[in-house]
Amino acid sequence: MGKTFSKPEALTDNHTHYCPGCTHGIVHRLVAEAIDELGIRENTVGIAPVGCAVLAYNYIDCDFQEAAHGRAPAMATGIKRVRPDLMVFTYQGDGDLASIGMGEIIHAANRGEKITVIFINNAIYGMTGGQMAPTTMPGQRATTAPAGRDAAQTGMPIRMANLMSEIVTPGYVTRQAVLKPQMVNKCKKAIKKAFEYQVANTCFSFVEVISTCPTNWGMTPIDSLKWAEETLLPYYELGDYKTPEEA
Amino acid sequence: MAKVLMKGNEAIGEAAIRAGCLNYFAYPITPQSEVAEYLSKRLPEVGGTFLQGESEVAVGYMIFGASGAGERVMTTSSSPGISLMSEALSYIAAAHCPAVFVNIVRGGPGLGGILPSQGDYFQATKGGGHGDYHLLVLAPDGVQEAVEMTMQAFTLAEKYRNPVMVMGDGMIGQMMEPVEFPDDLKTEPTNKDAWATNGMSTRKSKTPNLVKSLFLDSAELNRNNLDLKAKYEQMKKEDVQYELYNADGDYQILIASYGTMSRVCRTAIDMLKAEGIEAAMFRPKTLFPFPEKQVYDAAVKDSCKCVISIEMSMGQMVEDVQRCVMGKKPVEFYGECGGEIPSPEKIIEIVKELIG
């Protein structure tokens, strides 16, 4: 009987440091599968963010650079501009990308940098310990919003994929989730497509992934999946927001 | 090669190309925007990469990315912009990456002004960003030296895998002088396969390379700091540059100055000599590593009554001069700021007061 399931070559054997029930592991695997299927591992450079995924280079087996908080798209720009033959992707969380790194992501997208951005949206700061993110839902508790996010004081959650879709420069912008097997399969397709656009030198590509953070949400992994589906998905609607073909 | 008349900022841009640097990222700021304007035209002609970033913060990381990928890269800015790039400078130094940063200093603090200043000496030599790191800092005194130091900067950056700063000022950036571009200052880029993220397919070893500055283990972080420290000690041994002017005879006073200020001091020393007063000048060309022993030796000479540091600042390099002279001679200071530059007459007046 043949082998039907194996670890992607682009994933290392290391055990991850992620909390039980965290979805980073799923997305890492999807990125690694896409890299394997496109045969680009030896020409790929990842940019690790500041956040829980700062150690992504321990798990994804290609060249990596570590950026400061929010600066990954600028760093990716530097690499891609001087080495257009390399495949460059960033892997960023919502504090990193949607708060401190808002300037860098918007301008990289607007220049149409031929890079791929994987954006993990779990509506909270993970590594620093559950503080409010720009993506935190109204009423959602955080260590810096103990009574829940007050939209009158801090505004409504930023919908990055929607925002990015307003950029006129052609690009691929999609929002996916990894809360159910069907969603994981669709997310995989989107991530692969995002890399394919880069391989073909077509456009900037951006995949937002609705994820969970059981530890900082104070829920079990199962409850987290349920809460994300019921609370996040109605506000963060899934689907393609922009494709280069429609430009 | 024949000399050409060029503005300092444009000459710095051309020097980078002549040194084999074909990658430049920058954000406009007075008084150095001509570097970006010049290179936006020149780099495409030679097949290079020019990109205007959205901010100095972002440009710092474009430089970090390009350098981490193993390519020669430069940016230029001026004081407030260097403050914003200082975040990246700390990371680049921590990650042992070579890169060239040019600071055409303007008056500060805050928005300050757009005229020449030397107010960024502390920022350039003592850090600027967070953590224990140093830049190797070259301080040209005119357009020719700005060209030569810009070219040397790439070699030094790669020798130490450390960011190198060329620190001029608005005067050097804006004035025109005849220059030549010495071919012999161009070096071949070092092989970066051992550490750069240049793609595994281009390397013999198929182990991924990692450019990083995070060391969660205290012993590992301590080791990285020791590695950095060892490089700074090597710089002190091998790459100190300085000039002594009129220092062969029995001078009564030693003037410490650098960059544009040293040009004025040189004139003052010549005028004093015509009156029969001997003054010497100590001019560091590397602000870090500082020529520690050289300024000490020049200061302790028997004929020398005192040392004065003359700067376009409120007193920054003077602290290094005091540190190195170790109380063996009095160390005085005179400075003007904001684009005001001490005149030769003023310097002569101060020297005469000091030596009685």
From TrEMBL, chain A:
It comes from the Bacteria. This is 2-oxoglutarate oxidoreductase. The lineage of its organism: Bacteria, Pseudomonadati, Thermodesulfobacteriota, Desulfobacteria, Desulfobacterales. Signal peptide: none annotated. One of its GO terms (molecular function) is thiamine pyrophosphate binding. Keywords: Oxidoreductase. The keyword Transcription does not apply. It holds the Pfam family TPP_enzyme_C. The keyword Manganese does not apply. GO terms for biological process: cellular respiration; small molecule metabolic process. It comes from Desulfobacter latus. InterPro entries: 2-oxoacid:Fd_oxidoreductase, THDP-binding, TPP_enzyme_TPP-bd. Residues 58-200 form the Thiamine pyrophosphate enzyme TPP-binding domain.
TrEMBL record, chain B:
Keywords: Oxidoreductase. Residues 253-347 form the Pyruvate:ferredoxin oxidoreductase core domain. The keyword rRNA processing does not apply. Residues 14-192 form the Pyruvate flavodoxin/ferredoxin oxidoreductase pyrimidine binding domain. InterPro entries: 2-oxoacid_oxidoreductase (IPR052368), PFOR_II (IPR033412), Pyrv_Fd/Flavodoxin_OxRdtase_N (IPR002880), THDP-binding (IPR029061), Transketo_C/PFOR_II (IPR009014). PANTHER family: SUBUNIT OF PYRUVATE:FLAVODOXIN OXIDOREDUCTASE, SUBUNIT OF PYRUVATE:FLAVODOXIN OXIDOREDUCTASE-RELATED. This is 3-methyl-2-oxobutanoate dehydrogenase subunit VorB. The gene is vorB.
